[in-house]
Design brief:
Blueprint lengths: L1 E4 L8 E5 L2 E7 L4 E6 L3 H8 L3 H11 L7 E3 L11 E2 L4 E2 L2 E2 L6 E2 L7 H16 L8 H34 L3 H16 L1 H11 L3
Helix pairs in contact: 3-4, 5-6
Amino acid sequence: ADVEFDRVEKETSVEFHYENGPFTLVPAGDNKINLVWLDDHEVLQKVANMPAADFAQELGKKSHHLFGHAKPLTKAFVFPLSNLAVPVVGKDGAFLIGEAAHAFPPIGAQGLNLGLRDVEDYVAAIDGLVPGFSATDARNASKKYDDLRQGDLKRTGGFVDGLFRSLITEMLPAQGVRLGGVWALKSLSPLRKFAFQFGMGR
């Protein structure tokens, strides 16, 4: 859903972690945010069908009333989490970029970053092609693109998949590891810096 608050953190996503997943407020200009809320399907379906005033009250509670009054701007929609990864993203002159190559649950905010790096490697792969290039040139460029992308796709895909599984598992050790990881990111500056660099593909 799109929501407007009395105030927001400018250019900063705010994420609250709950037992069944994060409740994330993504800035969308002015005091508007895009809401990403992971929870049990039944919980989300119930909230999505609430009258606007009740929905606003629930948003205030989940965000600890840190941003003032919440005003829903759109209807809330519930989407089942899904994951998509293809083994080859460049072949025979074809290039798969963005969500044609990968689609992640909105955890860790890696979908957009990964898509931008797809474009960066696509540009590098076709650099040097001139009008009238041959089919062999196209095949070579798509192979180069696939070679450039494989390490990043596997690394980032594995990270997001592991994070996703830690959210939905009922095993206490996995939940403990996740909670410990969140605490460590909050408390240890070098680890937090490494996480940011990882998220940016560096």
